[in-house]
Amino acid sequence: MIKAYSQIERATAWMQQFRGVAPLFACVLGFTDTGLIPGISAAGATPTDRRYTAVADAEFLMLGVHPHPTYALPPLQAGASPVLITRAIVTAQQIPVYLFNAGLPQLPAVAAIDLGGQPAHCLSQGDALDLAVVHHLLQQGLTWGAKLAAEVPQAYLILGECVVGGTTTALAVLTGLGWEAIGKVNSSHPTCNHQQKWEVVQQGLKQVKGLEQVKRKWDAIVAAVGDPMQIVVAGMAIAASRSCGVLLAGGTQMLAVYALIQAVAETECLDYRLDQIVVGTTRWVAEDPTGDTVGLAQMLKAPLLATQLSFAESRYEQLRAYEKGFVKEGVGAGGGAIAASLYQNWDQRQLLEAIETLVGQYANQSV
Q1: φ, ψ of residue 14 in degrees (nearest 5)
Q2: Rounded to whole angstroms, how far apart are CA atoms 165 and 187?
Protein backbone atom coordinates (compact mmCIF):
# COMPACT_ATOMS: atom_id res chain seq x y z
CA MET A 1 0.00 0.00 0.00
CA ILE A 2 3.05 2.30 0.10
CA LYS A 3 5.45 2.96 -2.76
CA ALA A 4 8.80 4.78 -2.64
CA TYR A 5 9.34 7.08 -5.63
CA SER A 6 12.72 8.71 -4.90
CA GLN A 7 15.73 8.07 -2.67
CA ILE A 8 14.45 4.50 -2.53
CA GLU A 9 16.96 3.12 -0.01
CA ARG A 10 16.43 5.95 2.47
CA ALA A 11 12.65 5.80 2.05
CA THR A 12 12.60 2.03 2.55
CA ALA A 13 14.86 2.20 5.62
CA TRP A 14 12.56 4.83 7.14
CA MET A 15 9.50 2.64 6.60
CA GLN A 16 11.21 -0.38 8.12
CA GLN A 17 12.26 1.66 11.15
CA PHE A 18 8.75 2.86 11.92
CA ARG A 19 6.57 -0.07 10.90
CA GLY A 20 4.10 -1.07 13.62
CA VAL A 21 4.56 1.99 15.85
CA ALA A 22 1.91 4.56 16.72
CA PRO A 23 2.55 8.08 15.36
CA LEU A 24 1.30 11.49 16.43
CA PHE A 25 -0.39 13.82 13.94
CA ALA A 26 0.13 17.59 14.00
CA CYS A 27 -1.71 19.77 11.49
CA VAL A 28 -0.44 23.31 10.93
CA LEU A 29 -3.04 25.75 9.63
CA GLY A 30 -2.12 28.87 7.73
CA PHE A 31 -3.47 31.34 5.23
CA THR A 32 -2.19 33.39 2.32
CA ASP A 33 -4.16 35.93 0.30
CA THR A 34 -2.58 34.18 -2.69
CA GLY A 35 -5.35 31.60 -2.26
CA LEU A 36 -7.95 34.26 -3.08
CA ILE A 37 -6.69 34.86 -6.62
CA PRO A 38 -9.48 33.72 -8.97
CA GLY A 39 -8.73 30.25 -10.32
CA ILE A 40 -5.51 29.74 -8.36
CA SER A 41 -6.91 26.86 -6.30
CA ALA A 42 -9.81 24.40 -6.35
CA ALA A 43 -9.85 24.00 -2.55
CA GLY A 44 -13.13 25.90 -2.38
CA ALA A 45 -15.32 26.84 -5.32
CA THR A 46 -14.98 30.62 -4.84
CA PRO A 47 -12.41 32.96 -3.24
CA THR A 48 -14.89 33.55 -0.38
CA ASP A 49 -15.16 29.78 0.20
CA ARG A 50 -11.38 29.46 0.23
CA ARG A 51 -11.05 32.04 2.99
CA TYR A 52 -12.70 29.51 5.35
CA THR A 53 -11.24 26.23 4.07
CA ALA A 54 -8.60 25.88 6.78
CA VAL A 55 -10.94 26.53 9.72
CA ALA A 56 -13.59 24.26 8.21
CA ASP A 57 -11.06 21.47 7.73
CA ALA A 58 -9.79 21.96 11.27
CA GLU A 59 -13.29 21.69 12.72
CA PHE A 60 -14.08 18.55 10.74
CA LEU A 61 -10.72 16.96 11.57
CA MET A 62 -11.42 17.30 15.28
CA LEU A 63 -15.20 16.78 15.43
CA GLY A 64 -16.14 14.84 12.31
CA VAL A 65 -19.78 14.86 11.26
CA HIS A 66 -21.76 16.94 13.73
CA PRO A 67 -24.88 19.12 13.55
CA HIS A 68 -24.58 22.86 12.94
CA PRO A 69 -20.83 23.25 12.31
CA THR A 70 -19.52 26.77 12.82
CA TYR A 71 -17.58 26.44 9.57
CA ALA A 72 -19.04 23.88 7.14
CA LEU A 73 -16.72 22.24 4.62
CA PRO A 74 -16.68 24.51 1.56
CA PRO A 75 -18.25 23.37 -1.71
CA LEU A 76 -15.68 22.14 -4.26
CA GLN A 77 -15.74 22.19 -8.06
CA ALA A 78 -15.63 18.37 -7.82
CA GLY A 79 -14.57 15.74 -5.31
CA ALA A 80 -14.64 15.61 -1.53
CA SER A 81 -12.42 17.35 0.98
CA PRO A 82 -9.27 15.35 1.81
CA VAL A 83 -10.01 15.95 5.50
CA LEU A 84 -12.54 13.11 5.18
CA ILE A 85 -9.62 10.75 4.52
CA THR A 86 -7.57 12.03 7.42
CA ARG A 87 -10.45 12.12 9.89
CA ALA A 88 -11.47 8.55 9.05
CA ILE A 89 -7.94 7.27 9.66
CA VAL A 90 -6.97 9.15 12.83
CA THR A 91 -10.30 8.25 14.42
CA ALA A 92 -10.22 4.55 13.56
CA GLN A 93 -6.57 4.13 14.52
CA GLN A 94 -6.77 6.44 17.56
CA ILE A 95 -3.87 8.60 16.40
CA PRO A 96 -3.50 11.70 18.63
CA VAL A 97 -4.07 14.99 16.80
CA TYR A 98 -2.71 18.45 17.55
CA LEU A 99 -3.86 21.58 15.72
CA PHE A 100 -1.65 24.65 15.31
CA ASN A 101 -2.70 28.09 14.11
CA ALA A 102 0.33 29.56 12.31
CA GLY A 103 -1.64 32.50 10.93
CA LEU A 104 -5.35 32.56 10.08
CA PRO A 105 -7.77 35.43 9.37
CA GLN A 106 -10.23 33.97 11.90
CA LEU A 107 -9.90 31.62 14.85
CA PRO A 108 -10.94 27.98 14.39
CA ALA A 109 -14.07 26.83 16.21
CA VAL A 110 -12.05 24.03 17.86
CA ALA A 111 -9.06 24.13 20.16
CA ALA A 112 -5.84 25.00 18.34
CA ILE A 113 -2.48 26.08 19.68
CA ASP A 114 -1.98 29.69 18.61
CA LEU A 115 1.62 30.29 17.52
CA GLY A 116 1.30 34.07 17.31
CA GLY A 117 1.74 34.23 13.55
CA GLN A 118 -0.15 36.16 10.89
CA PRO A 119 -1.88 35.43 7.60
CA ALA A 120 0.37 36.11 4.62
CA HIS A 121 -0.29 38.83 2.09
CA CYS A 122 -0.50 37.75 -1.54
CA LEU A 123 2.98 36.70 -2.64
CA SER A 124 2.61 38.85 -5.78
CA GLN A 125 3.38 41.86 -3.56
CA GLY A 126 6.79 40.50 -2.60
CA ASP A 127 6.01 41.32 1.03
CA ALA A 128 4.08 38.33 2.34
CA LEU A 129 5.14 38.25 6.00
CA ASP A 130 6.99 40.46 8.47
CA LEU A 131 10.56 39.26 8.91
CA ALA A 132 10.15 39.32 12.70
CA VAL A 133 7.09 37.06 12.41
CA VAL A 134 9.06 34.60 10.26
CA HIS A 135 11.77 34.31 12.93
CA HIS A 136 9.16 34.07 15.69
CA LEU A 137 7.40 31.22 13.86
CA LEU A 138 10.69 29.37 13.39
CA GLN A 139 11.27 29.47 17.14
CA GLN A 140 7.71 28.30 17.77
CA GLY A 141 8.25 25.43 15.35
CA LEU A 142 11.51 24.41 17.01
CA THR A 143 9.92 24.55 20.46
CA TRP A 144 6.85 22.54 19.53
CA GLY A 145 8.79 20.07 17.41
CA ALA A 146 10.85 19.16 20.47
CA LYS A 147 7.74 18.96 22.69
CA LEU A 148 5.84 16.69 20.29
CA ALA A 149 8.88 14.49 19.66
CA ALA A 150 9.16 13.89 23.40
CA GLU A 151 5.71 12.24 23.27
CA VAL A 152 6.78 9.69 20.63
CA PRO A 153 10.49 9.05 21.24
CA GLN A 154 10.49 5.66 19.48
CA ALA A 155 8.01 6.64 16.76
CA TYR A 156 7.38 9.57 14.44
CA LEU A 157 5.44 12.74 13.87
CA ILE A 158 3.09 13.22 10.93
CA LEU A 159 3.27 16.91 10.06
CA GLY A 160 0.31 17.94 7.90
CA GLU A 161 -0.90 21.31 6.65
CA CYS A 162 -3.86 23.24 5.39
CA VAL A 163 -2.98 26.33 3.37
CA VAL A 164 -5.09 27.19 0.34
CA GLY A 165 -2.81 28.49 -2.40
CA GLY A 166 0.11 26.69 -0.77
CA THR A 167 1.47 25.06 -3.92
CA THR A 168 1.96 28.55 -5.36
CA THR A 169 3.87 29.74 -2.29
CA ALA A 170 5.79 26.45 -2.51
CA LEU A 171 6.85 27.28 -6.07
CA ALA A 172 7.79 30.80 -4.95
CA VAL A 173 9.94 29.66 -2.04
CA LEU A 174 11.65 26.93 -4.08
CA THR A 175 12.41 29.44 -6.84
CA GLY A 176 13.62 32.00 -4.32
CA LEU A 177 15.97 29.44 -2.78
CA GLY A 178 17.47 28.83 -6.19
CA TRP A 179 15.70 25.65 -7.32
CA GLU A 180 14.41 25.26 -10.90
CA ALA A 181 10.91 24.23 -9.86
CA ILE A 182 8.81 25.73 -12.64
CA GLY A 183 6.35 23.17 -14.01
CA LYS A 184 7.02 20.73 -11.17
CA VAL A 185 4.51 21.63 -8.45
CA ASN A 186 0.98 20.25 -8.28
CA SER A 187 -2.41 21.81 -7.72
CA SER A 188 -5.93 20.84 -6.65
CA HIS A 189 -7.02 21.29 -10.28
CA PRO A 190 -7.15 18.23 -12.54
CA THR A 191 -4.70 20.01 -14.86
CA CYS A 192 -2.14 22.09 -13.02
CA ASN A 193 -2.29 25.83 -13.69
CA HIS A 194 1.49 26.19 -14.06
CA GLN A 195 1.41 29.37 -16.13
CA GLN A 196 -0.83 31.21 -13.68
CA LYS A 197 1.32 30.14 -10.74
CA TRP A 198 4.54 31.13 -12.49
CA GLU A 199 3.21 34.57 -13.43
CA VAL A 200 2.24 35.24 -9.81
CA VAL A 201 5.63 34.01 -8.56
CA GLN A 202 7.54 36.14 -11.07
CA GLN A 203 5.47 39.16 -10.12
CA GLY A 204 6.29 38.64 -6.44
CA LEU A 205 10.00 38.00 -6.89
CA LYS A 206 10.32 41.10 -9.08
CA GLN A 207 9.20 43.15 -6.06
CA VAL A 208 12.13 41.87 -3.98
CA LYS A 209 14.95 44.40 -3.93
CA GLY A 210 18.35 42.93 -4.68
CA LEU A 211 16.90 39.50 -5.45
CA GLU A 212 20.25 37.96 -6.41
CA GLN A 213 21.64 38.94 -3.01
CA VAL A 214 18.50 37.73 -1.25
CA LYS A 215 18.45 34.36 -3.04
CA ARG A 216 19.28 31.48 -0.73
CA LYS A 217 18.58 33.68 2.33
CA TRP A 218 15.75 31.58 3.66
CA ASP A 219 14.24 34.20 5.97
CA ALA A 220 14.11 36.94 3.35
CA ILE A 221 12.56 34.55 0.82
CA VAL A 222 9.86 33.29 3.21
CA ALA A 223 9.09 36.86 4.27
CA ALA A 224 8.80 37.95 0.64
CA VAL A 225 6.83 35.13 -0.97
CA GLY A 226 6.10 32.39 1.60
CA ASP A 227 3.28 31.44 3.94
CA PRO A 228 3.26 30.96 7.74
CA MET A 229 2.89 27.16 7.67
CA GLN A 230 6.16 26.59 5.83
CA ILE A 231 8.54 27.89 8.45
CA VAL A 232 6.61 26.39 11.38
CA VAL A 233 6.74 22.90 9.87
CA ALA A 234 10.39 23.35 8.94
CA GLY A 235 11.20 24.24 12.55
CA MET A 236 9.14 21.36 13.91
CA ALA A 237 10.86 18.89 11.59
CA ILE A 238 14.36 20.14 12.44
CA ALA A 239 13.81 19.81 16.19
CA ALA A 240 11.84 16.56 16.05
CA SER A 241 14.33 14.82 13.75
CA ARG A 242 16.91 14.87 16.55
CA SER A 243 14.94 12.30 18.56
CA CYS A 244 12.19 10.76 16.39
CA GLY A 245 11.05 10.27 12.80
CA VAL A 246 9.25 12.89 10.74
CA LEU A 247 6.72 12.29 7.95
CA LEU A 248 6.09 15.54 6.08
CA ALA A 249 2.52 14.81 5.03
CA GLY A 250 1.82 16.57 1.77
CA GLY A 251 2.88 16.85 -1.85
CA THR A 252 4.91 19.62 -3.41
CA GLN A 253 4.11 21.94 -0.50
CA MET A 254 6.06 19.60 1.76
CA LEU A 255 8.85 19.19 -0.78
CA ALA A 256 9.28 22.97 -0.53
CA VAL A 257 9.41 22.59 3.27
CA TYR A 258 12.02 19.84 2.81
CA ALA A 259 14.20 22.29 0.88
CA LEU A 260 13.53 24.99 3.47
CA ILE A 261 14.55 22.67 6.33
CA GLN A 262 18.03 22.31 4.87
CA ALA A 263 18.40 26.01 4.12
CA VAL A 264 17.35 26.97 7.65
CA ALA A 265 19.43 24.34 9.45
CA GLU A 266 22.57 25.12 7.49
CA THR A 267 22.23 28.91 7.73
CA GLU A 268 21.33 28.92 11.42
CA CYS A 269 23.76 26.09 12.31
CA LEU A 270 20.98 23.93 13.79
CA ASP A 271 21.46 20.25 14.53
CA TYR A 272 19.09 17.96 12.65
CA ARG A 273 18.95 14.48 11.14
CA LEU A 274 17.91 14.51 7.53
CA ASP A 275 17.82 10.69 7.44
CA GLN A 276 14.86 10.81 9.86
CA ILE A 277 12.74 12.97 7.52
CA VAL A 278 10.66 11.76 4.56
CA VAL A 279 7.85 13.27 2.48
CA GLY A 280 4.61 11.31 2.18
CA THR A 281 1.71 11.99 -0.14
CA THR A 282 -0.95 10.31 -2.29
CA ARG A 283 -0.60 8.39 -5.52
CA TRP A 284 -2.73 11.11 -7.17
CA VAL A 285 0.02 13.64 -6.45
CA ALA A 286 3.03 11.40 -7.09
CA GLU A 287 1.66 10.21 -10.42
CA ASP A 288 -0.04 13.43 -11.55
CA PRO A 289 0.80 13.68 -15.27
CA THR A 290 0.31 17.46 -15.20
CA GLY A 291 3.02 18.05 -12.58
CA ASP A 292 6.42 16.54 -11.79
CA THR A 293 6.41 15.67 -8.11
CA VAL A 294 8.87 12.81 -8.53
CA GLY A 295 11.22 14.96 -10.60
CA LEU A 296 11.10 17.66 -7.92
CA ALA A 297 11.78 15.10 -5.18
CA GLN A 298 14.72 13.70 -7.14
CA MET A 299 16.13 17.20 -7.68
CA LEU A 300 15.91 17.90 -3.94
CA LYS A 301 17.16 14.38 -3.08
CA ALA A 302 14.08 13.97 -0.90
CA PRO A 303 12.74 10.51 0.01
CA LEU A 304 9.21 10.50 -1.41
CA LEU A 305 6.56 7.96 -0.36
CA ALA A 306 2.97 7.72 -1.55
CA THR A 307 0.00 5.66 -0.45
CA GLN A 308 -1.38 3.49 -3.22
CA LEU A 309 -4.94 4.12 -2.01
CA SER A 310 -7.38 4.02 -4.92
CA PHE A 311 -10.92 5.35 -5.21
CA ALA A 312 -11.50 3.80 -8.64
CA GLU A 313 -14.00 1.31 -7.22
CA SER A 314 -15.62 3.64 -4.71
CA ARG A 315 -19.39 3.81 -4.65
CA TYR A 316 -19.17 7.60 -4.12
CA GLU A 317 -18.77 9.85 -7.14
CA GLN A 318 -17.01 12.52 -5.07
CA LEU A 319 -14.27 10.02 -4.18
CA ARG A 320 -13.96 8.69 -7.72
CA ALA A 321 -13.24 12.30 -8.74
CA TYR A 322 -9.77 11.86 -7.19
CA GLU A 323 -8.99 9.38 -9.97
CA LYS A 324 -9.75 12.17 -12.48
CA GLY A 325 -7.21 14.49 -10.88
CA PHE A 326 -9.43 16.59 -8.62
CA VAL A 327 -8.28 17.56 -5.09
CA LYS A 328 -5.50 14.91 -4.80
CA GLU A 329 -4.20 15.78 -1.31
CA GLY A 330 -4.52 18.01 1.75
CA VAL A 331 -4.73 18.04 5.55
CA GLY A 332 -2.15 15.25 5.71
CA ALA A 333 -4.39 12.78 3.84
CA GLY A 334 -1.57 10.95 2.08
CA GLY A 335 0.59 10.82 5.18
CA GLY A 336 -2.36 9.58 7.21
CA ALA A 337 -2.99 6.73 4.76
CA ILE A 338 0.72 5.84 4.80
CA ALA A 339 0.63 5.78 8.60
CA ALA A 340 -2.48 3.58 8.59
CA SER A 341 -0.67 0.98 6.51
CA LEU A 342 2.55 1.22 8.55
CA TYR A 343 0.89 1.19 11.97
CA GLN A 344 -1.95 -1.34 11.64
CA ASN A 345 -1.09 -2.76 8.21
CA TRP A 346 -4.30 -1.48 6.65
CA ASP A 347 -4.88 -2.59 3.06
CA GLN A 348 -6.95 -1.05 0.26
CA ARG A 349 -10.19 -2.58 1.52
CA GLN A 350 -9.77 -1.35 5.09
CA LEU A 351 -8.79 2.15 4.03
CA LEU A 352 -11.66 2.46 1.57
CA GLU A 353 -14.19 1.06 4.03
CA ALA A 354 -13.23 3.52 6.77
CA ILE A 355 -13.27 6.50 4.40
CA GLU A 356 -16.54 5.52 2.69
CA THR A 357 -18.24 5.04 6.06
CA LEU A 358 -17.41 8.62 6.98
CA VAL A 359 -18.33 9.96 3.54
CA GLY A 360 -21.69 8.20 3.90
CA GLN A 361 -22.31 9.81 7.29
CA TYR A 362 -21.36 13.21 5.89
CA ALA A 363 -23.57 12.78 2.81
CA ASN A 364 -26.57 11.77 4.95
CA GLN A 365 -26.13 14.83 7.15
CA SER A 366 -25.91 17.09 4.09
CA VAL A 367 -29.20 15.85 2.58
Answers
A1: -65, -45
A2: 9
What contacts 295, CB < 8 A, 6 or more positions away? 184
Domain count, the chain: 1
Residue 294 belongs to a domain with what CATH number?
3.40.50.10210
CA distance 237 to 156: 10
* DSSP letter (8 states) at residue 162: E
Read off the pTM. 0.98
- Residue 224 one-letter amino acid: A
Collapse the DSSP code of 235 into the 3-class scheme (helix H, G, I; strand E, B; otherwise coil) and give the result: helix
Q: How far lies 309's CA from each of 82, 154, 283, in Å?
A: 13, 26, 7
Secondary structure (3-state) at 99 = strand
What is the spatial distance between Cα 202 and Cα 236, in angstroms, rounded to a whole number? Answer: 29
Question: In the chain, at which residue ranges do the beta strands (DSSP E only) sit?
Answer: 2-6, 24-30, 97-103, 113-114, 156-162, 245-249, 277-282, 304-307
CB 42 within 8 A of CB 188: yes
The boundaries of the domain holding residue 198 are 2-366
Q: Going from the first residue of the chain to its last (367 residues), give the mean pLDDT of each consecutive group of 10, the final group possibly shorter.
A: 98 98 98 96 91 97 96 92 98 98 98 98 98 98 98 97 97 96 95 97 93 84 98 99 98 98 97 98 97 98 98 97 96 98 98 98 84
Task: Specify the pLDDT at position 367.
Answer: 57
Measure the CA–CA gap between 163 and 30, rounded to whole angstroms: 5
Q: Where are the alpha helices (DSSP H) in 211-347?
A: 211-214, 218-225, 228-240, 252-267, 283-286, 293-300, 317-320, 333-344
What is the per-residue pLDDT for 4? 98
Question: 3-class SS at 123?
Answer: helix
Nearest C-alpha neighbor of 86 from the set 355, 360, 324: 355
